[in-house]
Specification:
Length: 143
């Protein structure tokens, strides 16, 4: 299994976790049940960690010039200096979108682990998580 397929697998698992999180948050909001957020925090943290793994594997593919990855094949070559290879991971279209979703999930991760009102926490995570499936579908079905 190559590094690119590990990153792609992490994105697919993120889609599944994100859809599950949307439905579980929707039921919590409908029932006005704002207690017991351990499972929601775990899923939210897992999404962030999996997106981080995906982005780091993309950087790794650029550093080792893994041309089996299409983004690396189209946006890199073997004689580039290391700094340009690392910055090439987010310099292309696919990498910048992965970085954008990673930053969105970072803020969701930080907010879910903060000491805020539980109701505000659920609503904020719900609205920030609803943005991600559009980007995940673009990653997996249009690239």
């Amino acid at each position: 299994m190559t590094a690119g397929s590990i990153g792609n697998l992490a994105l697919i698992v993120c889609i599944i976790l994100n859809i599950y999180l949307i439905f579980s948050l929707t039921t919590k909001i409908r029932k006005k049940n704002f207690k017991d957020l351990k499972k929601i925090k775990f899923i939210n943290n897992s999404i962030f960690i999996l997106l981080l793994v995906s982005f780091l594997t993309l950087i790794y593919c650029f550093v080792i010039s893994d041309f089996a990855n299409v983004a690396v094949y189209q946006n890199s070559h073997t004689t580039k200096p290391l700094l340009y290879k690392i910055s090439g991971a987010w310099g292309n279209h696919e990498g910048s979108m992965v970085l954008f979703v990673l930053i969105l999930s970072l803020f969701s991760f930080l907010f879910s682990n903060s000491k805020v009102n539980e109701e505000l926490k659920i609503y904020t995570i719900f609205f920030s998580i609803n943005i991600n499936p559009y980007f995940f579908n673009f990653f997996n079905f249009y690239l």
